Sequence to fold (228 residues):
Amino acid sequence: SAVISQKPSRDICQRGTSLTIQCQVDSQVTMMFWYRQQPGQSLTLIATANQGSEATYESGFVIDKFPISRPNLTFSTLTVSNMSPEDSSIYLCSVHRVMSTDTQYFGPGTRLTVL
Amino acid sequence: QQQVKQSPQSLIVQKGGISIINCAYENTAFDYFPWYQQFPGKGPALLIAIRPDVSEKKEGRFTISFNKSAKQFSLHIMDSQPGDSATYFCAASITSGTYKYIFGTGTRLKVLA
Fold:
């Protein structure tokens, strides 16, 4: 398995501001993923973040709104830019490790409320 | 073709009963099917997973049944306990590609004491 931490665990932000969420893993991983989970809903993949390359975004998500950094094999950040109340969600990072099972391990999530 | 359909949306079971959650997929390229358990305020945690070369996998009280021809798989929780009350998500993945998961819509399980 993998130990994954996210910061902050929760935040309340004003409309129009930006928030950067950090994801730290206890060991090196090749693939990291960022998800959004709206209240009472399933998980929606925002983007895949591989070290050394640009993030790959899913349909409906754009880099200007959700810029992602992946500076090394244990860390990634997701920024939610120019926030609106519709961005209120839980944001989760997950990791997939080479030479492991095909399982993704999830962080505890960041609960974001935009006023 | 990329959807994974999950049912029921919610489920109430008596303590000691069997909880059954079903998922169906269309894309025959999927080759990995995990189930996740999520408690309020927590991230999803892997419960059990199966590949299409086996029809059943059991771990403790949790069993996955897999029907490749019908493109369906289900989670059975035997002797359900109040501590099993959580939201359960099935997922499907193509492991030779991007390893992206397609998640089902989730089932909220409540086990009555």
